[in-house]
Design brief:
Chain lengths: ~400, ~400
């Protein structure tokens, strides 16, 4: 039983926490400083939920003699501390994955797997703050609005030195996040170092259920409406549907759909959300190793299939975002404005293993309706508009401005 | 200096030596990840088989293995490559730079280096612009006698076109048991047509010692690796110099990445009459003593030992013993600082693993890991000196020894 779902790897929404950090550059690189993010943007992921893989014995074709020789020699002779069997097993799995040379195929130990899982579901229990690891420190990127973290006075830039008295020294992001998270109603005490405060601050926060805001929407001047999607997580389709319903009530002249910085998520969400804008034809096709294609046509019932449309994209628009952008471009349903997209054209399947660890494997590529594989290439916008650091600092958004101009003037 | 350094850096493969591939392979792994003071010689490991009960925690490995084979979109490396990669993953999780897995071809080269000979034609080769080029035939080797010259480009080995092959693979073709023949097709500058040369392979010696007489009857012996024959080579070289009238001796351990632990004890015993040379401290925390073996050939006369940051492991055992026992001054730069001992196991498919099993201590029970040995007479070599081949460390050692002579 395969359930297609959306996956947000790029954001590890941890204890109230997103970790958006690392892929500003759309870099596909692994971040050694942030082990929690070994994976780049979010692949459309096929969720292969608890699919108990039958316990297999050493498959006959694989001669593991040498492996066990090394294993036993290390166990009996190594001078230092020998990791336990589980850690050595995970290390062996990671070794095998290294040999595949695919940065989207990765292994998550149970702790991290469960954090990823809640991220995908779009809600979790924690304090509601985005954290990142910078230079070996756990730093608050921002508390989420109205979250327990915000109410307790957590501020952007705070450095978390201790969690319930335990030093964060040497903790990776995943470990820190799993300590901060916990059942709603329970408390966690963070020791914070803050610029301008001579001594560390202790803040006790009561955890709650945090729902991630995946969409934001607003009316623009000139009769246009704006909808932004942060990620293609489980609640995304419904949230987009509800937002469109509200926005379209006023009979707007045009719609701007903002996918900038959206790292992707579940494939099924991409199909559902793409179908809000496209009434006929394909959203995408999947192509397997042997070249067999599986088409995914638009689903009926889209709410915004006629309204003039501009999609904002940038180099942080990856994966599921590119599926939607590619479908809108190929069907000529709307214009893409902004920058070239990330270029992630592969599909991963996520397998939960018997010990709750998780193996995410690149299983297929997806193609745009016209049959293009954008992997490594990205999608060029119809109207290229760069945005500079200076624009960002001064709050200017020339990409949005250009989108508005296009919708108002048709050029 | 440069020339001497190369001896370590080059592996003498069948015909030769891969100057650069070796540099990145052996030298790197030996110097920085450390050579092998090893208590055990390469030995097959008994009684481990695949049926050795895999721990129950290992089940998820096969789950992952199967999923990857069933689902992975890209090219899947062959089972051997995956197995090696799994091994590297495990080894990496130990966080010890000296515990390393070595694939079969590198294992073979390493053991030749330590054994001190191999069978082939005796020439150094290198890869330049994707061509396999003869760097030089070894003096007196079958390659030299057959007329192979530096700069020759190898086109074919027997009937095999070598275009696009790796250096390792070409070397493997050229090598073979002594007495057998190999035919090389070579392209030589100034010759319009390829040259075909038949060469009969032989045993090629890889000496670990270079010696000569310097000024004022001061002998010079350089040891490049601590292999099986090193003790005899050192003793013989010193005896020859003694016959030629050497009154003082420089023992050069610069850029010597180490080798066998026993070889270190035996070489140190050439300079130290008796007593402790080093201690080994294993998992049990007990110190095992290694004592001088007696019958050393240079235990009383004036001596200076040259070290630098490339002097590692077995080199540091010898230098540390000479320093702690106040036998002679160390001259040069601080040494590398590798105070651990590895055992080297040859595995069933001819790959090998070096496992850190102990640390060693100097006679004063100093652990040198990360610190190295501090020279008694510190003499840095500036890049300018290096460029001009101005060996200021050797000069300082000569000056010191001149002061010791009557």
């Amino acid at each position: 039983m395969i359930r297609y779902t959306l996956r947000v790897l790029a954001m590890l929404i941890a204890s109230g926490v997103f970790i958006l950090s690392t892929f500003t550059a759309g870099a596909i690189v692994q971040h050694s400083t942030v082990p929690a993010f070994t994976s780049p943007p979010l692949p459309p992921t096929v969720e292969n939920t608890p699919q108990p893989v039958p316990a297999v014995k050493d498959p006959a074709e694989a001669d593991f003699t040498v492996f066990w020789e090394v294993w036993n020699i290390i166990r009996s002779e190594f001078l230092g501390k020998v990791p336990d069997n589980q850690a050595m097993t995970y290390a062996a799995i990671k070794g095998v994955i290294d040999a595949l040379g695919d940065e989207h195929t990765h292994f998550s130990e149970p702790t991290r797997a469960s954090i990823l899982q809640s991220d995908l579901e779009g809600k979790f229990e924690g304090i509601g703050a985005t954290v990142d690891a910078k230079s070996g420190q756990i730093v608050i990127v921002a508390p989420l609005k109205n979250s327990p973290a915000e109410k307790a006075g957590i501020q952007a830039g705070d450095i978390v030195t201790h969690i319930d008295g335990k030093s964060t020294d040497g903790l990776n992001l995943t470990d820190a996040v799993s300590l901060i998270r916990g059942p709603k109603g329970t408390q966690v005490t963070l020791t914070i170092v803050r610029v301008g405060s001579p001594t560390p601050i202790q803040i006790t926060i009561t955890r709650a259920t945090i729902e991630l805001e995946v969409v934001s929407q607003r009316q623009l001047d000139n009769g246009l409406v704006y909808l932004r999607l942060e990620q293609f997580s489980a609640p995304s389709s419904q949230a987009v549907d509800a937002a469109l319903q509200t926005l379209l009530r006023t009979n707007p002249k045009g719609l701007i759909f903002d996918l900038r910085g959206n790292p992707g998520g579940f494939l099924q969400s991409a199909i559902e959300i793409g179908s809000e804008f496209i009434s006929t034809g394909l959203i995408l096709s999947e192509q397997d190793k042997s070249g067999n294609r599986q088409p995914h046509p638009a689903l009926p019932g889209g709410r915004a299939t006629k309204i003039p449309l501009v999609v904002l994209v940038d180099k942080g628009s990856a994966s599921a975002s590119e599926i939607v952008a590619g479908a809108i471009r190929d069907s000529k349903r709307g214009k893409l404005v902004g920058e070239k997209t990330f270029g992630k054209g592969s599909v991963q399947i996520s397998n939960t293993l018997s010990d709750q660890s998780r193996l995410t494997v690149t299983i297929r590529h997806w193609l745009t309706p016209s049959g293009q594989d954008i992997h490594g290439a990205g999608i060029e916008p119809d109207i290229a508009v760069p945005i500079t650091e200076a624009d960002r600092k001064s709050g200017r958004d020339p990409q949005l401005d250009r989108a508005i101009q296009f919708l108002l003037t048709g050029a | 200096m440069q020339g001497l350094f190369k001896l370590v850096a080059m592996t003498l493969l069948g015909i030769l030596i891969a100057a650069f591939s070796f540099l990145s392979g052996f030298l790197y792994s030996t110097v920085t990840s450390g050579p092998l003071p090893t208590s055990a010689n390469l030995s097959p490991i008994p009684n481990v088989t695949r049926t050795v009960s895999a721990p129950s925690e290992f089940a998820v490995f096969w789950e992952a293995w199967q999923i990857i084979h069933k689902d992975f979109y890209g090219q899947i490396p062959d089972n051997k490559a995956l197995t090696y990669s799994a091994i590297r993953g495990v080894v990496k999780s130990l966080n010890d730079q000296h515990t390393v897995f070595v694939e079969p071809s590198a294992t073979a080269r390493e053991s030749e280096q330590l054994r001190g000979d191999f069978e082939g034609i005796g020439a150094t080769v290198n890869l330049q612009n994707d061509q396999v080029v003869i760097v030089a035939p070894i003096v007196g080797s079958p390659a030299e006698q057959a007329g192979v010259q530096p700069g020759d480009i190898i086109l074919k080995v027997d009937t095999q076109d070598v275009k696009g092959m790796s250096l390792d693979d070409v070397v493997a073709l050229i090598r073979g048991p002594r007495g057998t023949k190999v035919t090389l097709t070579l392209l030589r500058l100034g010759r319009p047509d390829p040259i075909v040369i038949d060469i009969t392979r032989n045993t090629i010696q890889l000496p670990s010692v270079i010696s000569r007489m310097e000024q004022d009857n001061i002998g010079y012996v350089r040891l490049t690796i601590f292999g099986q024959k090193s003790k005899d080579e050192v003793a013989t070289a010193i005896q020859d110099l003694t016959k030629k009238g050497a009154k003082a001796l420089i023992f050069d351990l610069r850029s010597n990445p180490g080798g066998y632990l026993q070889s270190a004890i035996d070489v140190a015993s050439q300079f130290i009459q008796n007593g402790v040379v080093a201690y080994e401290r294993g998992k049990d925390g007990k110190d095992q003593e290694f004592r001088a073996t007696g019958n050393g050939v240079w235990t009383n006369l004036p001596l200076a030992v040259l070290i630098d940051k490339g002097s590692a492991s077995a080199s540091e055992i010898v230098a540390g013993a000479i320093q702690d026992r106040k036998r002679a001054p160390l001259v040069g730069d601080t040494s590398y600082g590798k105070g651990s001992v590895q055992s080297v196991h040859q595995l069933s498919d001819q790959s090998s693993i070096h496992v850190t099993i102990a640390e060693w201590l100097t006679p004063n029970k100093t652990q040198i890991t990360g610190r190295g040995l501090t020279p008694d007479i510190a003499v840095p070599i500036s890049p300018e000196d290096q460029k001009r081949a101005n060996d200021t460390q050797l000069i300082a050692a000569l000056d010191y020894l001149k002061g010791q002579l009557p």
